[in-house]
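In this supplementary section we document a worked example of the pipeline. Step one takes a protein sequence of length 566 as its only input; no multiple sequence alignment statistics are reported here. Step two produces a three-dimensional model, which step three serialises into structure tokens for compact storage. The input and output of this example are shown verbatim.
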Amino acid sequence: MVFSNRLIRRGFLASTMAMGFLLAAPAHLLTQTQAQQDSDSQVANDEPVLIVTLGSVNKLTQDINYVTGVAGQAQAGGMFGLLMGTFTQGLDTTRPIGILVPMVDGIPQPIALLPTNDVKTVLKRLEAQTGPYDEEDDGTLRIIVGASVVHIQQKGEWAVMGTAKEVLKLAPADPSDLFEGMGNKYDIAVRMKMQQIPAATREMLTAQLKMGFQQAMATQNGPDADASRQVAENSIEQLEQLVRDTDELQFGFNIDQAKQKIVIDGSYTAVPGSKLATMYDGIHAIPSKFASVIRDDAAAFYHAASSISPEAIEDTRTSLKASMGALRTALDSQGGLTESQREDINSLVDRIIELAVKSLAEGRTDIGALLLADEEDFKFVFGAFVADGNEVASIAKDLAAKVENEPNAPQFKFDVSTYKGVTMHLVEADLPESENEARRVFGEKLRVHIGTGAKSVYLAIGNGSDELMKELIDSGDKDTTADRPVGQLRLTMMPILTYALSVESNESIAAMIDALARSPDGGELNMVAESIRNGQKFSFEVGEGFLQAIGAAVQQTQQALQGEQF
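The serialised model returned by step three reads:
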């Protein structure tokens, strides 16, 4: 998930930048490339580059009322309902609203689609904002919106609107097929097809990115300028590839009253046969040594186990080296360090990079983290695959030797014991009496348990967490299936807040716990990433309890502020 999520983020960034470019770029910038357009882009393309839908007026109103009510801000939902009732008279309140963006001679031409069989009634209602409409001989209506003339035509059960009259013919009489999987399935949905953007326009986008990069780099001075330039050049190179190889992006936001949660879905695919598609197709779930962190009683867990394609390995290796090079440069310029200290830190960074690169070269990632909490205690454990666990121990030992004479340095105890092939180490640090909260959490000493195996590293914090680490080690050979997402995360607020309140009394936390006690869940937040052909998809869910808890905290803060005023 570490590598796949980075690919998703880059894909969404490239697509979002392209989307913004299409909607906001001045026409003269686009027309500069018309002579370079491929012959198939010289005419209108019936298939839109971008589709955006809003749920129906009824759905939006009901969902906003629901979520604002859950969050304790029902008045906001009421205001939204009043506004919708004021400005949507004449619309079919059961059908979605859409925006299509086809490319005409390389220029994006947005078209709005309103669900109404009587657009004149809608325009009459908006006369105070737009003025009266004009009607042409062919029945086309015109209104003035700001500095633009908007043309409107009635097409069956839909009204189509756009600033270019000739483009309105591209709107279908019934857009239902275009809205498939969007529309009333989500409150907001977006679908973008990057390859529908002419190659010359995409080249212009990357040229604009490069220009912005060059302008930014021209202002960079100082010892870290070269390292920053290397990182930026690497990022621009990757974005160029994403603009070139991205196929389709989909995104949906929905307030799901039936399931009592907010859901965000998304997917990203690359052009079949491209280098990027090969990267994605090389990512799939694998058996894991840390899958036991996926527990129903967890306050939080994170798990990711997947293969990594050779192309993704090389891509990540390049990014890692560039980023760590920038870190080394920043450390070199840090004041207060002696030359010897800088050499020691750079040597440590080099070893970490080398270990990370060796781990990547094995073609897989496997990570698990688990947090258990209740009203008395918490335990945290982490495990991960590494190419050489003994090197992790060696790095830690060398670090301990470097800092042993420093004031308030932690105490390192290496090779304390061995458990099923994993060597146990302990790091202890005294906590000052002034650190009251930290002492209530960790005691007088902070203890960090570290385990190093041949191909693994473990870390545990909290009372009894060393036993939890052993449980994680025990379960390492029991997982033989890959029937799970490549990555997943879940967080539950109730046990975390309960423990936090036991550490220190807090009225906002108490209010959140009270709200969660009445909620249908414990304040859950879930995220899942899965492989699909030539890409990946993800879902992000926020439970009703989470919203109720946040709302309770807001209300508590508002009440406290009101109390201060009197």
